[in-house]
Write a structure and sequence with these properties.
The chain has 41 helices and 35 strands. With about 1300 residues, it is an alpha+beta fold. The strands form nine sheets. Strands 1, 3, 4, 5, 8, 9 and 10 form a seven-stranded mixed beta sheet that branches. Strands 23-25-26-27-24-28 form a six-stranded parallel beta sheet, with helices on both faces. Strands 13, 14, 15, 17 and 18 form a five-stranded antiparallel beta sheet that branches. A hairpin with a 2-residue loop joins strand 20 and strand 21. The chain starts with a helix and ends with a helix.
């Protein structure tokens, strides 16, 4: 009966459960919200359940729970629908009566306002009755994958591990991409495992790709892609160096083969060679895919086969062992091998003892006993700990905690010491841990290793420095590049740097270029911010600290004074090679004079082993080829041009030489005969073998910088000059085939990334063929091109990259003599270009280089309107002059209508008018300037100024912007230069602000500079501390706080260059102001003169920090279940700022005694919150780990200092006590008997520090200031660790 009753109860329970589930399922299907998905940039349709009734009021709302719903659209009976929320303006339409369509979706559409975190993005209609709640999800492109690490590199492959990032709510795939270090072009990985599809967020994936060459450093990245978009390699990549080839020789015996010939290439041995190679490869290939087998020779003895086996150095020993095992086990198939006859590198390999699994095997016993011993020790430690805890709890009132026995601490101490040893892994802590650094390219395609080249390599090998002298086109640079390639091959982790970019053929490498390129080298070396005067010394100090030899190349030096003496001061550690056209540089260094091709060089160069060369040159008499070479002075540049021409035209050498001689006679100027020959060859190739449009396009290269000329800029220049739209593909093919240019980069779907680099002689030859009118037309066209593409908006990688690419080309054009002859209508355009040059150099932290361009910009404006009057008169004069220039067709003013909109620009416009045509977004992506029709659309939508507003404002805005950029130079100067420039900066920034404010008050025109000149200008200047008294600093910080508070409340829309640039109270602007306020209060706490004042500043800091954190947290977006789906980028930063402030207060002694634990706990909370943000970037993550390392260090020091202050400490196992040194000196305390808690504090501190150092090492090596701080704290932690006792054998046995 009991069993029956039990079964009955069970059955009832099951039935009841089923009924409840059915009821819940029914209710849930009726009441729960439905998820709706749409694509970013697309549209989504939300169905309304109630039947449409035009007589009833209809509204759509966003459901917010207890916070109250927000109506976004309403339709009264008989009226048109009205959008109630401005962010949806123009984006909401009704269809099928009452259903809703939302256009131009973006990731903010799952909430009505980015400042209200209660909005869950749940939409609902109501018309008499309420419809189903619909949760909107916006699918988007994937986020970049994370935790990319290289796990293995072989001869021709790389393997990486990576975690999938956010997939954008779509199926994503991950693919490995690579590029050779020093090159620009990314290539997609090859192989079946180079890609993986259907990757989830957080999923760990292993990818492998083949690579082209061994012993080469590559940069590898993993690209995430879904059907909407893909991530970029520039977001994150890591270096990977392929293994280099190693070999061993082996001899095997084939007892059943007859000896026929010792030569493996003999026809008689072909079958046997094939069987041997295939057998060995088949046996070893699966474990060693890069293995190569070569038969060297056969010898008698039945047949003895001598083989050479190649593989990567890292696996060569494994290959040897596997090969021996394969031979001796008889696993080679296809050939019969004597198992007992085997030599490896002329020695018989040792026979390995096979593991028989004997019970008496001591290894087996060890394998069993060791874990048992460990477990036993752990058990004993656990019992001891429990006993001590119980004993401690029973001993109430006891003043000192019982000391854990030495045995209980021993293991954790060993763990701690091991963590400290990990410092050896981080190169940023040790100058001896070096990685390769290079910007040196390889020799050009078609490079011939001439006698000159071999001599350069030999002499450079012998000497610590070398000056290579020779005429233009003699092959100096190619010979030096050949040596650099050899240097890199034999010097592990070499640092090699190429200084080169001549302004023109007359002026070689300049001091300015050396400074700029030295700055890039300093960043790669991890040198901190230093002045231009200190830069060479700092670079040399870093290079000299490296174990390996370094190489510096200075190409085309005409003035020896351009090279700072420091670069020539340590030739024993830093090898220097200089190329020059001058025969008397007077540097007192070893030199080599180029002699040109010898006869054998000429014949080998022209008669290469390719089909086309054989057809053209094989039947040509040597004399004709040598005559041709002699006409070029036996220099390679001319021969390269002639060879390319002859291959393309199939003209005979004799005919070509006759035509060349005639063409060279017409070359103007005082040139040597061989130089005229080269000029003639260049012009013949252009005139006879290039399409006319390609010729005209190529001419623009003559007035640009030599290297990295974007093909799209040449094409655009011709389009503006003549209205032609040339075929860029044909152009690239022609210049490359004719050896007129070196082509780099590739044509992408969205942008043409191809660039050409040309020889100085090529530029000079083209210039010699141009008249002044042609030169002026080309110059004016390029100025118009630069106005479109050369801008200061570097917020997006794509936009910043193009401006950086154009910088040397804009400088080259502005240095032309004809610039001074351009009419007044070009002056504002020139001022704008000079100002952008100055801005770009300031961004590179080179204010000294920026200065001439910014002064020139001010000079151009002053030539139009004197700027030394009072602000009102200057303003009125600028307005009047602007109107005059506008009416005369000013180039800059006209160009504002056809300016290039960046992706950032379009995002602002779309947030103001969500229904904006997709044409604007596409144009920004393809880098296509506005058409006049598109500009008019923006005017009509209120997104751009009218022609009259532009007429009144453009020159005022230009003058204000120039003075703003010039004034902001102060923030890039260092030391006394910064202090000395402050008064000028104040005047320039004040004038910039005044002009902007007058434009707003007089014309109602709000330009972005009005806000910027305060936020990053006058207010930022108030935060400067150098050269001010404490009282002045305090007043200025308080004034800055008030100014930033006013900016937080500023809701104006701002325009830049006539187009909307900033909307009201945007998130980034507000966070900038909050951070500035919090930072100012942080400084004020140190400036306070009384405890009460300091407490007030700390209180105000905490209030402001709370507002900052609250605002940042309000930007977090969650789904209906409370799951975070999007977090603002600045959220980890504000958490870190809160933690850093607490640490700073503790370090300054401003935390009350006894509050240490609460303070460290609070700081720890902030850092952990930062690390909890899923989208945290490396630059914030590294600060969080560093902060936690500081927290645990301070916890350790606090406990030790507390023991010292109390004048007693816990008794130790050996009767000693802790002794503290002066706490103010931050020296480690002598700690002969640490507690387990104390050791754990240090373990946690070192673990967090190592995480921080790992991120610096792999991703942020250029963060020199932060790395120095990490080094200081790491040293502090290590000193504490060193103060702990070693666990000696004697002490362990005593215990």
């Amino acid at each position: 009966m009991e069993v029956s009753a039990s079964a009955s109860k069970s059955t009832c329970g099951v039935l009841l459960t089923v009924m409840v589930c059915l009821i819940l399922q029914t209710s849930s299907s009726a009441g729960l919200p439905t998820e709706v998905f749409g694509d970013e940039g697309g549209q989504v349709d939300l169905r309304c359940d109630p039947v449409f009734d035009d007589s009833k009021r209809l509204f759509w709302e966003v459901v917010q729970g207890t916070a109250g719903n927000i109506q976004i659209l309403v339709k009264e009976p008989g009226k048109e629908a009205e959008t109630l929320e401005t962010r949806y303006a123009g984006r909401l339409t009704l269809y099928d009566g009452n259903s809703l369509r939302i256009s131009n979706l973006n990731r903010d559409d799952d909430s009505v306002t980015s400042t209200d975190r209660d909005v869950l993005g749940t939409y609902r209609c109501s018309q008499g009755t309420a419809g189903t709640e619909l949760i909107l999800r916006v699918r988007h492109g994937p986020e970049p994958p994370t935790e990319l690490t290289v796990t293995a590199t072989k001869l021709y492959s790389v393997t990486v591990n990576v975690k999938g990032g956010q997939d954008g709510l779509l199926s994503q795939s991950l693919c490995l991409w690579y590029r050779e270090e020093g090159t620009e072009e990314w290539k997609k990985g090859k192989g079946q495992t180079s890609c993986q599809s259907e990757v989830k967020e957080g999923q760990e994936v292993t990818l492998e790709s083949t690579l082209p060459t061994s012993n080469t450093t590559y940069q590898v990245c993993v690209v995430a892609q879904n059907r909407l978009n893909s991530s970029r390699c520039e977001d994150a990549y890591v270096p990977a160096t392929t293994d280099y080839v190693a070999t061993f020789n082996t001899t095997i015996r084939l007892p059943n083969e007859a000896f026929k010939s010792s030569d493996p290439n003999s026809q008689q041995n072909s079958g046997l060679v094939s069987r041997i190679v295939n057998s060995v490869v088949l046996a070893l290939k699966s474990a060693h895919p890069d293995i190569e087998v070569e038969v060297i020779q056969f010898r008698e003895g039945s047949v003895l086969a001598d083989l050479k086996i190649s593989a990567g150095q890292r696996e060569i020993q494994d290959v040897k062992e596997d090969f021996v095992s394969t031979v001796r086990s008889g696993r080679l198939t296809g050939i019969d091998v004597d198992r007992n006859y085997l030599y490896i590198d002329n020695e018989i390999p040792r026979a390995e003892i096979q593991d028989t699994g004997s019970k008496d095997d001591p290894d087996i016993i060890a394998k069993v006993v060791t874990p048992i011993a460990v477990l036993a020790a752990a058990a004993i430690a656990a019992v001891t700990a429990v006993y001590l805890c119980q004993r401690n709890s029973r001993s109430e009132g006891q003043k000192h905690i019982f000391e854990i026995t030495y045995m209980a601490v021993a293991q954790v101490l060993q763990d701690l010491f091991q963590l400290a040893k990990d410092d050896d892994k981080f190169s940023i802590l040790h100058s001896s841990k070096e990685t390769a650094i290079s910007n040196v390219r390889k020799p050009d395609n078609g490079f011939h290793e001439s006698v000159d080249c071999k001599n350069i390599v030999a002499k450079a090998d012998e000497a610590s420095s070398l000056v290579v002298c020779g005429s233009t086109g003699s092959g100096k640079t190619q010979g030096v590049l050949a040596y650099a390639k050899k240097f890199a091959g034999k010097t592990a982790n070499a640092a090699m740097w190429f200084f080169g970019q001549s302004e023109n053929e007359e002026n070689g490498l300049s001091e300015k270029i050396i400074m700029e390129q030295g700055k890039s080298l300093a960043e790669r070396l991890g040198v901190g911010k230093v002045s231009p005067e200190e830069l060479p010394n700092s670079i040399m100090a870093s290079l000299c600290s490296r174990e390996s030899l370094s190489l510096l190349i200075f190409d085309d030096v005409t003035d020896p004074n351009a090279i700072p003496p420091a670069y020539l001061s340590a030739l024993d550690k830093v090898k220097v090679i200089i190329t020059t056209r001058s025969s008397n540089l007077d540097l007192n260094l070893p030199d080599y004079k180029m002699k040109g091709f010898e006869e054998k060089d000429v014949l080998q160069f022209l008669r290469r082993d390719d089909q086309r060369s054989v057809e053209i040159f094989q039947g040509t008499p040597d004399k004709h080829l040598l005559d041709l070479s002699d006409y070029f002075g036996n220099y390679p540049h001319g021969l390269s041009l002639s060879r390319a021409y002859l291959l393309k035209s199939r003209t005979s050498v004799e005919s070509y030489l006759r035509e060349l001689q005639e063409r060279s006679k017409n070359i103007p100027g005082q040139l040597k005969m061989h130089e005229k020959a080269v000029y003639g060859a260049i012009l013949m190739s252009m005139e006879n073998r290039m399409d006319r449009a390609s010729q005209d396009m190529f001419k623009f290269a003559a007035i640009l910088s030599q290297d990295g000329i974007p093909v799209s800029i040449l094409s655009k220049g011709l389009e503006i000059a003549s209205g032609e739209n040339p075929n860029k593909d044909d152009f690239v093919t022609e210049v490359e085939e004719l050896s007129l240019a070196r082509v780099e980069g590739k044509k992408e779907e969205w942008i043409d990334g191809r660039m050409i680099s040309v020889h100085q002689q090529t530029q000079a030859a083209i210039l010699s063929s141009l008249d002044e009118q042609q030169l002026q037309t080309m110059t004016e066209s390029l100025i118009k091109v630069f106005l479109q593409y050369f801008h200061k908006d570097t917020r997006k990688v794509q936009d910043g990259y193009m401006s950086s690419l154009l910088l040397p080309h804009v400088e080259a054009v502005l240095s032309l003599p004809i610039i001074s002859k351009l009419p007044e209508k070009f002056h504002p355009a020139l001022a704008r270009l000079y100002e952008t040059i100055g801005y770009m150099y300031c961004q590179k932290h080179l204010p000294e280089v920026a200065a001439p361009a910014l002064e020139k910009a001010k000079e151009m404006i002053s030539s139009l309107v004197p700027m030394d009057g009072d602000e009102e008169s200057v303003y009125q004069s600028l307005v009047a002059k602007g109107r005059e220039l506008h009416d005369k067709g000013d180039v800059y003013c006209k160009g504002l209508k056809t300016r290039l909109l960046t992706k950032g620009d379009v995002e602002v416009l779309e947030s103001k008018v969500p229904t904006l045509s997709e044409d604007f977004s596409k144009a920004a992506k393809m880098e296509q300037p506005l058409t006049e029709e598109q500009h008019q659309q923006l005017v009509e939508l209120g997104l751009a100024y009218s022609a009259e507003q532009v007429r009144d404002s453009f020159l005022v805005e230009l003058a204000a912007t120039i003075h703003y950029t010039s004034g902001r130079r102060i923030f890039y100067y260092q030391g006394q230069q910064r202090v000395a420039y402050r008064q000028t900066a104040e005047e320039e920034l004040s004038l910039s602000l005044a002009l902007s404010q007058k434009l707003a008050s007089n014309k109602g025109i709000q330009i972005l500079n009005k806000m910027l000149s305060q936020r990053a200008g006058t207010l930022y200047l108030l935060k400067e501390t150098e050269g001010k008294t404490a009282s002045q600093q305090k007043d200025d910080f308080l004034q800055a706080i008030q100014g930033y508070q006013d900016l937080i409340n500023d809701n104006n829309d701002y325009f830049e260059n006539g187009v909307l640039k900033k909307i009201g109270d945007d998130d980034w602007h507000r966070m900038f102001c909050y951070r500035a306020i919090v930072d100012s209060y942080c400084h004020l706490t140190s400036l306070a003169t009384a405890d009460e004042e300091r407490a007030d500043f700390i209180h105000r800091h905490d209030e402001s920090a709370k507002k900052m954190v609250d605002f940042a947290e309000q930007q977090v977006k969650k789904d209906d279940k409370g799951n975070v789906i999007e977090e603002p980028e600045m959220l980890p930063e504000v958490y870190n700022m809160s933690g850093n402030f607490i640490i700073e207060m503790m370090e300054k002694g401003l935390v009350k005694q006894g509050n240490d634990k609460e303070s460290t706990a609070e700081a720890k909370k902030w850092y952990e919150k930062a690390l909890g943000v899923r989208s945290i970037k490396a630059k914030h993550e590294v600060i969080s780990h560093l902060g936690l390392a500081k927290v645990h260090t301070l916890m350790y020091e606090s406990e030790k200092a507390s023991a010292a202050r109390n004048g007693h400490s816990a008794p130790t196992a050996n009767g000693e006590t802790w002794i503290a040194v002066d706490d103010d000196d931050k020296q480690p305390l002598v700690n002969n008997s640490p507690t387990l808690d104390e050791v754990h504090h240090l373990i946690n501190a070192k673990e967090e520090m190592n995480k921080s150092l790992k991120i610096f090492e792999e991703k942020l090596k250029n963060k020199t200031k932060e790395i120095q701080e990490a080094k200081r704290w790491n040293s502090r932690i290590v000193q504490h660790i060193k103060s702990l006792p070693d666990v000696t054998t004697e002490q362990e046995s005593t215990v």
